[in-house]
Amino acid sequence: MRRRALEMAGGFVTDSLSEDYFTGIRLSAQGNRLIYLNEKLSAGLAAENIAAHATQRLRWAQGTLQGFFISANPLTIPGLTLLQRLAHLEGLLHWFTSISRVGFLMMPLAYSFLNIIPIRATIPELLYFFLPYYLVQLTVFAWLNRRSRSALLSDIYSLVLCFPLALNTIQVMLRPFSRGFKVTPKGTKSDRYTFNWKLASPLIVLFIATTISLWRNLGMCLVKGAWATPEISQQLKGINLGWIWSAYNLVAIAIALLILIDVPNDLFAWFYLRRIVQLKIADKTFWGITTMLSEVGAEVMLTQSISSFSHIVIPVTLEIMEEKLTLSGQIKQIKFDSEFPTLRISFETLDLTQQRQLIEILFCRPGQWKIQNTPGELASLLLIFKILLRPRVLFNRNLSVSAIKVAQV
Q: Which listed residue, 55, 81, 230, 351, has the most CB atoms within 10 A of its CB?
């Protein structure tokens, strides 16, 4: 943004934790045109586990809802058009959906524990009214979000945080400025699987209650179905929906609980980056191509065969030919699962010049960041069932390095 425009708008908005959002609103209200640039210009650390993800989302919710109580409120600030106010209203009201989500999770419990039928409908009625809406959601959600989100995956993640977000929303509306900025933890490394019991606690309680509710609803359907009088048929009209609803919630909660298992993660990012390299190993010269590269190591596929070494750790000098960068390291692993061997190399400590040059290769090449589309709804559904039926924590504990795809030029 231009400094002059920012000064005319009164500077950055510091009344809210979402200072960037409300500064943009103030600039728009001054008559400036804000343009979304659909280009990746930078890269940085994101939330690396579910706890950090929750911290970030709760801060965003608090900062956005504070907009109701500051002068940069998009609903009241002079200068915005009606269409702009409507667009910002959706952003403000979005966080209240967590409250309704909690209500929909608990509503099936009323069938069995309170003997209340909140929605009375038959299966055909349910299909007639609900199925078209659900199909429209599945078909247009990704399109409207330009393939940045999936309806099914977004639904699971909204379930994971619905309880803390609902509580946070109520607290902010009652005491909007009671809590300050809480930074998202980043740059953390973990070598083990961890389970977030704090976020999981309400979901576990709800899972147990929903299981009991489903059992009771099915029992009532079976017992009352055998004595089908007009009055009992009217009761079953709602109970059938109750056990279907409970079954759906059980599956969704089960997947949400699996998402709360954080897998081990490396501190440094690896990239699928191909570069021609020359290796010097034990006074012999070899040529190869990098298949993965990071700040701490590289994986190199040789273009010629190599004899096995008796040493556990083999010293090596690696030169990235295009960048004329020479690095020293050690071969930690040799794999012979293809025509030519692949070496996993760990770099030794880099000096400042080497570090800067390597960071430029990894992070600072114009146009290198590819747009990562989320899976389509069918692929998302298959992914959800894979998570449910083959949890990674049970079937794939030996995780390999996961590299990021980037442009090669």
A: 55
